[in-house]
Design a protein that fits this description.
Blueprint: H1 2-18, H2 31-35, E1 42-44, E2 50-52, E3 66-72, E4 78-83, E5 87-91, E6 97-101, E7 110-113, E8 119-123, E9 128-132, H3 136-139, E10 146-151, E11 157-164, E12 167-172, E13 178-179
Antiparallel strand pairs: 1-2, 3-4, 4-5, 5-6, 7-8, 8-9, 9-10, 11-12, 12-13
């Protein structure tokens, strides 16, 4: 009986090695070859080179359902324009968040921060955009003053940028145009 068990175990191990495969090599030199696979932790350049992909870590999760725009200031803080509920959040590099703007509209769709850390949110459906006249640090102590800058016709601002000092460029989703 003992001999039968030993022979059976030997046969099982021998059969496992008989079906094992050896090492195979192949060469991929074209971008198309590399894109057929799944890239985990690596980035594929258009010339076919591989490099380590950037890593991301979650900094903050908002109570709002949507994030529409993100801007940053000189101190490294991020400003997030959100919707449902409409808010502008200021998020410090260590992940601490403060709500700095709560409009009556449903969302803040676009956002820009100038060199003086004044933020300008644009919001649909009114198309209004209003610049804060105080920095977020001052806002934490008191309600910020706001200067109404203007609005675009037929609402829904998609992006906003500062061209020169107080000249704003705004794009719209309802009509294919840029407003200055």
């Amino acid at each position: 009986m003992r001999l039968f068990r030993t022979v059976s175990l030997f046969a099982c191990f021998t059969a496992a090695f008989a079906f094992a495969q050896g090492t195979r090599t192949w060469e991929q030199s074209k971008f198309e070859d590399l894109t057929k696979g799944t890239a985990n932790g690596v980035a594929i350049r258009s010339v076919g080179a591989l490099e380590l992909a950037p890593t991301f870590k979650m900094l903050y999760t908002t109570p709002s359902t949507y994030l529409w725009s993100i801007a940053s200031d000189g101190s490294g803080a991020l400003y997030a324009a959100a919707g449902a509920p409409a808010r502008v959040y200021r998020i410090t590099p260590d992940g601490q968040s403060t709500t700095i703007f709560e409009p009556s509209e449903l969302q803040v769709q676009a956002l820009v921060v100038d060199k003086m850390e004044r933020y300008t949110p644009a919001r649909p459906p009114t198309g209004r955009f209003t610049r804060s006249n105080t920095t977020p640090r001052a806002h934490l102590r008191r309600q910020p003053k706001k200067a109404k800058i203007g609005s675009i016709p037929r609402g829904h601002p998609l992006s906003i940028s500062i061209r020169r000092r107080s000249t704003y460029g705004i794009s719209s989703s309802t009509i294919p145009a840029i407003f200055l």
